[in-house]
Specification:
The chain has helices at 3-6, 14-38, 50-76, 81-105, 115-129, 135-157, 160-167, 189-206, 223-230, 232-254. The longest helix has 27 residues, at 50-76. It is mainly α and 256 residues long.
């Protein structure tokens, strides 16, 4: 860990921040391509083409694994509930801002349960269970399996009225759906809770038997990633307005 970190009662680990920063950078490239598509500069199907749908899945997976690692580290470092709730409130406030902003831009498909909404709910579950250590690997696997088993049951065996209930916005945040909702971002509790549980299990291992992998100096070229990862929530909230604003300015300059 860095010299500055050693002065802190709750040191940060540059490797974890850099991994989170890599996820943010990948997300930025993805969103920039999406914005180019929305502005008419390229033509891609972001909703069905596997090139884009799989990228989105991998990016969200990496986000949630990093969030789980961070929560496990915070628990090992004795993070108080007060500090947890302060950070959680920031995530929730940003989630509500995303909903408001997306409603302004996409009123027919605004984001009502996207990645920040999902993280806000899942963080509470992981905070309550994060001390279960290696059992979180099993819990994560069960959460992912529950998504697909539950969806199959609702699709093939359950009455249509029950499937319709879980497909409605009131309950589709759980993830037990048979059809995707019309929204620009959708990160329900299942299966994504499983990914954060896996991240928490990995974080617990890193803080125990795997401690030798933490605290190593980063290569100079990776330090910008660690900086982005350290300010991930602020970066997340600012990157899209900046890119969309830049594309709007370009369109004005080109007279489009």
């Amino acid at each position: 860990m860095t010299h500055a970190a050693t002065k802190s009662a709750s040191p940060r680990f540059d490797e974890v921040d850099a991994l989170r920063g890599f996820a943010m950078l990948w997300m930025t490239v993805f969103h920039f391509c999406f914005d180019l598509n929305q502005s008419g500069y390229i033509k891609q199907d972001f909703y069905h083409d596997a090139l884009w749908t799989w990228q989105r899945t991998l990016i969200v997976s990496l986000f949630l694994i990093c969030a789980g690692i961070g929560q496990a580290i915070a628990l090992q470092q004795g993070q108080t509930w007060g500090r947890f709730w302060r950070r959680w409130a920031q995530v929730l406030a940003c989630a509500l801002l995303v909903s408001a902003g997306s409603w302004w831009m996409y009123p027919q498909s605004f984001i009502y349960f996207g990645v920040l909404h999902g993280i806000a709910v899942i963080l509470i579950v992981v905070r309550l269970t994060g001390h279960w250590g290696r059992w979180l690997w099993l819990l994560g696997s069960l959460a992912i399996a529950a998504k697909f088993v539950g969806a199959y049951f609702l699709q093939a065996l359950a009455p249509e009225s029950l499937a319709a209930l879980f497909n409605a916005p009131l309950l589709n945040w759980l993830g037990l759906i048979t059809r995707l909702p019309i929204t620009e971002d959708y990160v329900p509790v299942l299966p994504w809770l499983g990914l954060m549980w896996w991240g928490a299990a990995l974080g617990a291992w890193l803080m125990g038997d795997g401690q030798r992998y933490l605290g190593r100096p980063l290569a100079p070229q990776l330090r910008p990633l660690a900086l982005i990862g350290r300010w991930s929530l602020s970066y997340y909230m600012l990157h899209q307005p900046v890119m969309i604003g830049a594309l709007m300015a370009l369109a004005w300059w080109l007279g489009r």
